[in-house]
Each structure stands twice: as C-alpha cells, then as structure tokens.
Amino acid sequence: MDVKMGPQWEAVLEDEIQKDYFKSLVETIESEYRLNTCYPPSNSIFSAFEYTPFNDIKVVIIGQDPYHGRGQANGLCFSVTDGITHPPSLKNIFKEIVSDIGIAYPESGNLERWAKQGVLLLNATLTVKEAAAGSHQKIGWETFTDAVIKKISEKRTDVVFLLWGGFAKKKAKLIDGNKHHILLSGHPSPLSANRGYWFGNQHFSKTNSFLASKGNSLIDWK
After folding, report:
1. Does 40 sit behind a cis peptide bond, omega within 30 degrees of 0 on the bond before it?
2. Out of 56, 133, 154, 221, which residue is the most buried by the measure of CB atoms under 10 Å away?
3. Catalytic positions (predicted)?
C-alpha cells in the first residue's frame, strides 16, 4: 500500500506513520486487498489527504467507514464516484443543503469539489471489505485518524468541525473548542434524520457564517 498523502500531511504525520501500529496496519490492509475485494480502490485510500492539504483545511467532516458497495467509495467520507446513485445519508445531506442555502439538488454525489476547497472528508476507518460494513474497524485506522484530528486541533486555528451522529460526536474530546468551531447534530442517515435529529441543523450556512467572521473564503456547497 502506497501511503501517499502529499508533502504537507507527510510532514505533519511523519512520526505517526513510523509507529509500529501503523506499519502493522499497512501490512494488514495490503493482505486484505490481496485476499478480498475491498473499498475504496487502493489508490484512493488516502484521497481525503491528497485533495485537502493540511494548510488548506477550513472544515472537517467525520464519517465512520467507507461505503461497502461496488463502485461507491472514493476515499472521501459520504462521497460516491460520479454516476453512482446517491446513498440515503448523502441524499439527506443534499436535502439539508437545498433547504439551508437554497441551491439546486446536486446531480453528482462526488464531493471532490468540496475537498478541493478545504473540506477534509475524513472517515475514521479508511477501508472496508465488500458488503461487510465495519469490517476494518479496530485494526489501527481509528488510532491513526484520531491522531490526524489531534494534529489539526493542535496546529491549526479556526477550523469548523462538523460532527454528525453519536460516533462523530465522540471525537469532540480530541478538539480544542477554544481554538476551533464545533457544530453537532444527529446523523444524516434516514434512521436519525426521520426522527428529527438532522434536518434543520443549518450546518452549511453556519459554517460559512463562521468562516466569514474570521475573514476566510466561504465554501461553495454546490
């Protein structure tokens, strides 16, 4: 597995990727990809880092693990490759954006356009076995991505963290709330959204209001 994250991330995480647990994780994932069908494609595992250099981060969205259906996952949380039907959580994200800021419902579910503007789309677990949700949890990915969140908290300021659902909310303890802006809500999955825990959170307009208050450029959520 080629650990390519771009020069800024590789400098920030230099010590982390030299740790024994990470080397063991790489070996495990290489074996999993040899023996099974896994997602995202091996050259997209670190796409979130490649699309959003460390110094460009304005917003962090935290997901749990990649979509486990064929052709869906592209290395960015909640995102799917062009032409793929939008999964239920992504549909609800887009519905909230339409309601919140009044844009048309997007055709493509590929969120590369957000990532290139400084939205780090980070899954806590970066890989998954086909048709087996959560299959690569607790093998080291969470240790790594927790370290990523801590580095952002320590070395950056005025980043907006969007923590959706119980799993993501637990990451708040890794973030210095005095330096950053944390927005919490229910998860966009139908189970949560249909109970009233997602729709109306206005996280997209609130994010841009905060960025504007700090003199930063806004995210075009289209």
Report:
1. yes
2. 221
3. 65 (proton acceptor)
User: Of these residues, 2, 15, 56, 65, which one is catalytic?
Assistant: 65
By CB neighbour count within 10 A (0-12 exposed, 13-18 middle, 19+ buried), where does 67 fall?
A: buried
Look up the domain containing 49 and give its range: 7-214
Count: domains in the chain = 1
> What pLDDT score does 2 carry?
82
| Cβ partners under 8 Å of residue 190, min gap 6 | 88, 89, 92
82 belongs to the catalytic site = no
With 0.85 as the threshold, say if the pTM is over it.
yes
Q: What's 86's domain CATH number?
A: 3.40.470.10
Q: What are phi and psi of 165, to 5 degrees?
A: 90, 165
The kind and range of the H/E element at 93 are helix 88-101
Reading the block at residue 99, the tokens are 């309601």
